[in-house]
Amino acid sequence: ELEAHPDAHRRAEIHERLSPIDAQSAPARAATSLSGLGCSTVQQDGPCSALSGGWRMRVALAAALFSDPDLLLLDEPTVGLDLPARAALLGAIDVLRQNHPGIAVVMSTHLMTDAERFEHVVMLSNGAVAAEGSPGELVQRLGDLLIAVPAGVEVGNQIPCESQADGSAIARPQDEAQLSAWTTLLAEAGVPFSVRRPTLADAYLHLARAPLQGEAAA
């Protein structure tokens, strides 16, 4: 059909645009990309409108990979997805990164559990960089264990607490003896608390500026 086009200049223009993307192998490369992200042949042959939001996002990822980019920017790709679709999409992104190590993937998200999957995290607060590093490095800054007190609870001078950006508070005992002493004081004072290992969300709340206003990690 292209060769039969009456305008020779138009034919030359189309050929010039198709040549860099190796158009002859396009269907096979598209099928490979879609299959690599878990799309079955039935899904590939059907209309995109019949797919759920999570599967449409996979198709969008495959389309982005078609031109063999050096950089892939994902702007909160899991927003609006239910838990199974979100888990499936994050798994597809993991596969993408494994199969295409030459592509730098940058993803913005408000969910620290999503950010934990990446090697390097940049935390933003009020438009400025609050901290950056690997998830493990950022979490380790808080120590091995936290005593966490919910927002709105008055701790007083029972133990040395640090305010978090969401209004909660944490204390960072240095050893088991200090942990035991501090939790005993809180229990005797009737202060609700929990003891747990710190998370990336804790690290963000510790480093972000309060009050929180549309904060994100990238």
Number of helices: 9
Helix and strand element order: HHHHEHEHEEHEEEHEHE
Low-confidence sequence ranges: none
How many β-strands, per DSSP?
9
What's the oligomerization state? single chain
Terminal-residue CA separation: 46 Å
Please give the radius of gyration in angstroms. 25 Å
Overall pLDDT, averaged?
82
How much strand?
Answer: 15-25%
Structural class: alpha+beta
Keyphrases for this structure?
four-stranded antiparallel sheet, 9 helices, single chain, 218 residues
Topology (elements, then pairings):
Layout lengths: L7 H11 L7 H11 L4 H5 L7 H13 L5 E5 L7 H17 L4 E5 L3 H4 L5 E5 L2 E6 L1 H6 L5 E4 L12 E2 L5 E3 L4 H13 L5 E3 L3 H8 L8 E2 L1
Parallel strand pairs: 1-2
Antiparallel strand pairs: 3-4, 3-9, 5-7, 5-8, 6-7
Helix pairs in contact: 4-5
